[in-house]
Design brief:
Blueprint: E1 56-61, H1 68-73, E2 78-86, E3 89-94, E4 106-110, E5 120-124, E6 132-136, E7 160-164, H2 165-202, H3 208-235, H4 241-319, H5 327-363, H6 368-392, H7 398-432, H8 435-458, H9 462-486
Antiparallel strand pairs: 1-2, 1-7, 2-3, 3-4, 4-5, 5-6
Length: 487
């Protein structure tokens, strides 16, 4: 029986294409190609739609061999194609070679011009000739299906039939599809039985001997289904729409059965390979796992240094807000933040370079489990360093932010001084209501507006934000002055 059904010397995948019988490389373990079955696209060549319709008929007879009617009908059996007209009806000529002494056979209609006895559809060696083979007393526009007399003086036959070729082909195609349906059902049932027997033989996939036995059962069955699928595709050529739908469904069922069988073979191959390779893999995993642990310890030293330095810099940055009202302490906090920021940025750069260098070592691991675990951990550390770098971006502008904060403080003090003068002048004018007090109000208001406009042109950041807050206060003072002037 040999060593195994799927070894390169004993099993070759049967599939379409130039590599159909190409043996596998010695020692390799590759499961058969499994393509998930889909409903195949119908080739355009299977359904022909002529631009000019030429009618065709097929003559058939079910008369038993030896019967008088059987012998008489033999010369007429076959396909007839439209060939001109006669007496207002189409004429049809037999295709291909003829049987008997007549070289040609025609189906034609003859009207009542020669009397009612001669009216009807005829089979003859020529249109209107004296040598006739069959008659149907019918005046239909197309040749009648039944009711033919063979010979024309006999009784109407019950076995002689004239069918449109399209309908005849449809019946044949449907009959073929039905036969294939039974064959495919039997093939699939047999395949399922083999698969169940194979599963019983393979057990829990822990024994090479049991796996080999299961493979010998399934391998030939996969080839049989493949050949059946090829024959099925050939059988559907030229079929009608309804038969094509049946064939397409059969092809889908067969494809699903092949997928199940080939998937099961793949499991057997994988199981055998696993048994043979497990010991080697275990040793490699142990060796590479130890190497990765040492490598990870070195990486964590760098990543921890990044986290610690970034946290210190952020803490110093956040402390600035708590001493913002004390210029001396605020400046000290800014200086400290800048110093810690430089340390953190240095740690981030060194950490990023170190981790990137170690990625090359991780890629050298041959065991996928160790390599994937290491790559995942290194990716997490890289993402942590990237997040730390993003957290440090606001700290780059800490000195600029401090300067803007001081400018805002100064602008705020100057504005409060000027708006306070305006508000006090308005209060005095509301009591005195003299021209002198009104003049004093307008002058104070003018100076305040000029200051606001001048500062808005040059201010930025927090200073500009402070000025925007004062616009409502200036508007309120201006409204009071306008009201006072109108009284």
């Amino acid at each position: 029986m040999g060593d195994s059904v799927w070894n390169e010397d004993t099993y070759v995948d049967k599939k379409d294409g130039p590599d159909a019988k190409k043996p596998r490389v010695a020692g390799s373990v590759v499961p058969p190609t499994v393509v998930k079955p889909v409903r195949p696209a119908r080739p355009a060549s299977l359904v022909v739609k002529p631009t000019v319709i030429i009618e065709r008929y097929v003559v058939t007879s079910t008369a038993p061999e030896g019967a008088e009617e059987h012998e008489a009908a033999q010369a007429l059996l076959g396909e007839f194609v439209q060939k001109g007209t006669n007496h207002g009806r189409k004429v049809y000529q037999k295709c291909g070679a003829t049987i008997g002494k007549y070289e040609q056979h025609f189906i034609y209609y003859w009207d009542k011009r020669d009397g009612p006895a001669f009216a009807g559809w005829w089979f003859g060696d020529k249109v209107g000739g004296s040598e006739v083979r069959a008659l149907c007393k019918d005046s239909s526009l197309t040749p009648p299906r039944t009711g033919w007399k063979i010979p024309w003086t006999a009784k109407a036959s019950e076995t002689f039939t004239l069918i449109p070729k399209e309908e005849h082909d449809r019946e044949l195609a449907l009959a073929s599809a039905k036969k294939w349906t039974a064959d495919i059902e039997e093939a699939i049932a047999t395949a399922k039985g083999c698969m169940l027997e194979s599963r019983e033989s393979s057990g829990d996939f822990t024994s090479v001997e049991s796996i080999n036995k299961a493979g010998w059962l399934l391998g030939p069955k996969s080839d049989e289904l493949s050949l059946t699928d090829q024959s099925l595709r050939e059988a559907q050529l030229g079929s009608c729409e309804e038969a094509l739908d049946m064939f397409a469904e059969l092809d889908l069922q067969l494809g699903e059965a092949r997928e199940v069988i080939n998937t099961e073979i793949g499991k057997l191959i994988s199981a055998k390979a696993k048994i043979e390779e497990d010991a080697k893999i275990a040793v490699k995993i142990a060796n590479e796992g130890g190497t990765w642990e040492k490598l990870l310890a070195e990486i964590l030293v760098k990543s921890n240094a990044v986290e610690d330095s970034v946290q210190k810099a952020l803490a110093a940055y956040e402390s600035i807000e708590s001493v913002v009202d004390d210029p001396a302490k605020c400046k000290c906090a800014v200086d400290q933040t800048e110093s810690l920021t430089r340390v953190a940025n240095t740690a981030i750069g060194e950490g990023r370079i170190f981790v990137n260098m170690k990625i090359a070592d991780v890629k050298k691991f041959t065991q996928e489990s160790v390599r994937n675990a290491a790559a995942t951990k290194v990716t997490e550390i890289q993402q942590m360093i990237k997040r730390s770098q993003e957290q440090m971006k606001p700290l780059k502008e800490v000195r600029v932010q401090h300067k803007q904060r001081e400018e805002a403080r100064q602008v705020n003090a100057e504005f409060i001084e000027k708006i306070t003068v305006v508000e006090k002048a308005i209060e005095g004018a509301e009591e005195a209501k003299t021209d002198q007090s009104m003049s004093k109000c307008r002058l104070a208001m003018l100076r305040c507006n000029n200051f606001l406009e001048a500062q808005q042109k040059v201010a930025a950041g927090k200073a500009l934000e402070e000025l925007e807050k004062f616009e409502k206060r200036v508007k309120a003072a201006s409204d009071r002055l306008d009201k006072l002037q109108s009284e």
